[in-house]
Structures are given as structure tokens and as C-alpha cells.
Design a protein that fits this description.
The protein is an alpha/beta fold and about 170 residues long. The protein is built from 7 helices and 8 strands, in the order ββββαβαβαβαβααα.
Length: about 170
């Protein structure tokens, strides 16, 4: 599955593990269901990542976040936005590792995914074939501001409008 970040395509460093067997994998990516077992086997030099469904509750995940280097949130479809909210919650609870969106997202969601805290997006082959990497990187320049507060670093449209009205009222 192709992987990209804000700079374009990137190489995959993580190896998906069958079950909880992480053996000698330096960067092991395991399913949510086997995470406790994989963490129990982890050696000092290994990095563990987990693939979670977009229905995981933060209290369940929060206790394990410090032991993880990567959290991949599954998106069952591009129309299911629960993964965006979950990503924001994970970042708000202090996760500093790599956050990955995994599933059939579309180009129009890329800037929003990054603003929510994702570092990278992993696409199914069919999605990548319909929308090549060049479209994804070009899409980042298309949206400069959003409506949600606390997403991204340039402020939101509503706050900018409010500020402009206040300046105009003060000048009058």
C-alpha cells in the first residue's frame, strides 16, 4: 500500500506482523487485538506500532501510548470521518510518535488529515491508482485556512473575519 506524507511518497519502514509475533522486527506493526501480547515481547531496540479501528476509545489507548512509536488509524471508507476526530484526541492526549491514516481517503481530505495531527497517509492500491501522489501534494496548496479552531497553525477563517470586523469597528 502506497505511503505518503506532506512531501510526497515515502518508504515504508514498518513491517506488519502476523499476530503478536514480532521476533526480530525492528519496526513491528501489529493489530490492536494483539498489542498487549506484542508489547510483552518487545525488546529494548524494537519499535512497536499499532493499527487501530476508528472506534477505539481514548481511555483504552492512553495507557499504552507511551510504548508506541506509530499509531495507524483505520478508515473503512473516505466518508467515515471518525478517524479525524480520533487523531485529534490522540494528539491532545500527548502522543508525539507517528500518526498514520490508513484507508481509502481522497485528495480533498489530505490537508485536513495533516491539520488533525496525521503525519502520513497509507492508501489502498486502488485509491492510489485513481489519485497519484502528485495530486496529493498539489492539494496541500489548495486550502490555506479552515473553519475548525485548533486545527493547523494558521488560524481559522472565522477568527480572521472576527478580527477584521473588530479592526474595522475600532477604526470607525
Amino acid at each position: 500500500m502506497p505511503l505518503l506524507d506532506r512531501h510526497g511518497a515515502k518508504a515504508e519502514l514498518w513491517t506488519r506482523s502476523e499476530g503478536a509475533a514480532i521476533d526480530n522486527l525492528s519496526h513491528a506493526l501489529v493489530a490492536w487485538e494483539v498489542l498487549p501480547e506484542a508489547l510483552a515481547q518487545k525488546t529494548r531496540d524494537q519499535r512497536i506500532g499499532v493499527i487501530i479501528p476508528n472506534t477505539v476509545r481514548i481511555p483504552e489507548l492512553k495507557l499504552l501510548m507511551r510504548q508506541l512509536s506509530l499509531i495507524a488509524i483505520s478508515f473503512p471508507s473516505f466518508g467515515d470521518g471518525r478517524g479525524f476526530s480520533l487523531a485529534r484526541l490522540i494528539r491532545n492526549h500527548g502522543f508525539t510518535g507517528t500518526l498514520r491514516a490508513s484507508g481509502p481517503l481522497i485528495v480533498d481530505q489530505f490537508a485536513y488529515a495533516l491539520a488533525c495531527g496525521f503525519d502520513e497517509v497509507e492508501l489502498p492500491e486502488a485509491s492510489a491508482a485513481r489519485q497519484p501522489v502528485e495530486q496529493w501534494t498539489r492539494a496541500l496548496g489548495q486550502i490555506s485556512h479552515g473553519y475548525q479552531r485548533g486545527y493547523g497553525d494558521s488560524g481559522n477563517i472565522l477568527d480572521r473575519r472576527r478580527s477584521a470586523r473588530l479592526k474595522h469597528a475600532a477604526a470607525s
